[in-house]
Amino acid sequence: MNGEGKISRAGADQGDGDPREVSVRPAVAADRGAVLDFCANTWPGGDYIPYVWEDWLNDARGRLLAADLGGRAVGIAHVQRLADGSAWLEGLRVDPAVRRRGIARLLTQASLDAARELAGRGAIARLMVSERNAVSRHLVERSGFRLERRSWLMEREAVNDGGAPADEHSSAAEAARALGAPRREDEPPQEDPLAGLELARVPEAEAARLAGLLRDDPPASLLPVRPGLVWEWAWVSLHPAGLTDLAGQGVLWTARRRGMLAAVAALGRSGPDDDLLLAPLAGTALLLAALARGWPGAGAPQWLSILDTPEDGELARRAGFHAGNRSHGQLIYAQVL
Ligand SMILES: CC(C)(COP(=O)(O)OP(=O)(O)OC[C@H]1O[C@@H](n2cnc3c(N)ncnc32)[C@H](O)[C@@H]1OP(=O)(O)O)[C@@H](O)C(=O)NCCC(=O)NCCS
């Protein structure tokens, strides 16, 4: 995508015999009002675009594109180069008043051009859509993306909000007791999986080394290692830069048992309601399920982001998460640029 100017014609026809051209250009601050207006009812609960608008507009690693019709923004798309060298496409929106005229298709092509400029030819571009979004799935499949993997965002009732503020090092067993970690009624009593588990936030400077260990030589105690995780609506691959990014946000945690690494996960507040979200990266289902029941001081996670594997499904079940009304499958699509 070559910065300013008209790049293509979308064939938008206003139906009044006055065909107008739609072009794609970088979004500008003055587009804010129009964009937030047409995004007001994207989903039943609104949209997250107002919360990310400033960041996306001023994003040094990415570009916010606008579809322009007669000087008015009628669509947007954001693309960025992720720390692992891949490109990430997100936030595709078209004004409901001008949908079904090829504008999303135009924005997607422009996003792919921008991705190629940002990440380089041969890099991988990814995006994620809800499996319920049939229109988007059709659009991305027609635009050359192939389904790479599926993840699930599972929910559960909050157990308890109590507890002291999160500590850098603390005993999960104590936390679990403090939180009154629940046991499913049909589950036989077993050894407390939290016993002796020490949790620690991963410092940014150590994240790259941890990624190398997970990729090249994971101890048996850390298996299975997942290829990445979905965090805040984006795919984070198991890559030094990806984990450094998570650690920089303060959301990458390890759990050790008798000195051995036992689990690695992202955990932190997420979304408009600041709910606690857990996304496992490595470790057994049992340990991760235990973590999900009682993170120190932070309350129990309400959301669990897992990959669509039998192991992680079991993890979710053991931890009391389920696919409720607000849960859904998330499809991660990819294509080589
Ligand atoms: C999804 C969305 C961006 C599509 O925008 P659009 O400009 O109407 O899409 P286009 O006109 O470019 O159409 C793209 C394709 O989807 C099809 N399509 C679009 N809307 C459709 C609908 N309501 N029903 C069936 N097919 C539809 C088009 O026919 C076209 O397919 P084709 O290329 O095979 O002919 C728009 O509906 C939107 O903003 N939705 C809400 C936000 C969203 O879902 N964003 C994407 C995921 S984050």
From TrEMBL:
Note one Pfam family from the annotation: Acetyltransf_1
Residues forming the N-acetyltransferase domain are 22-162
Q: Where is the composition biased (Low complexity)?
A: 172-181
Where is the stretch described as Disordered?
Answer: 1-22, 159-197
Single GO molecular function: acyltransferase activity, transferring groups other than amino-acyl groups
According to the UniProt entry, where is the signal peptide?
none
Q: Specify the protein name.
A: N-acetyltransferase domain-containing protein
Organism field? Limnochorda pilosa
